[in-house]
Design a protein that fits this description.
Blueprint: H1 3-24, H2 30-41, H3 43-55, H4 61-72, H5 84-103, H6 105-117
Helix pairs in contact: 1-2, 1-5, 2-3, 3-5, 4-5, 5-6
Length: 120
């Protein structure tokens, strides 16, 4: 599957998981939910997350290959609120998340458990 399609799917799937996580934490005010969701789902945050996960050797070889394919994919879209490097790192992570959605939801659960440990 096209890595940008995986990233598109992964973006939505990650956003849903983060919203579910925050609501489970007891957040009920939409303003608070949005502020806290951005700590995870913005391109800047996703770039930080993926950098930490790579340092921790979290990804399998297959997942790293998907990440690099998406990160290195030529895009004709210019990022709105971030630099191109941050945008590409986030796109790579989103592609891996899209892959998990289609192929291995257990890895998504492991990913979310890891992300919850990070201090924001």
């Amino acid at each position: 599957m096209n890595v940008l399609t995986l990233a598109y799917l992964g973006d939505a799937y990650f956003e849903l998981h983060i919203r579910e996580f925050l609501i489970a934490q007891g957040m009920v005010k939409v303003n608070d939910l949005q502020k806290n969701a951005i700590k995870y789902v913005s391109a800047k945050s996703q770039a930080k997350i993926v950098t930490k996960l790579i340092e921790e050797n979290f990804f399998t070889e297959e997942e790293i290959a998907i990440f690099y394919r998406a990160r290195n994919h030529k895009s004709h879209k210019s990022p709105k609120n971030t630099d191109i490097i941050t945008y590409k790192l986030a796109t790579g992570l989103e592609a891996v998340i899209g892959h998990w959605f289609l192929e291995n939801k257990d890895r998504m659960k492991a990913f979310m458990e890891q992300v919850k440990k990070y201090e924001w």
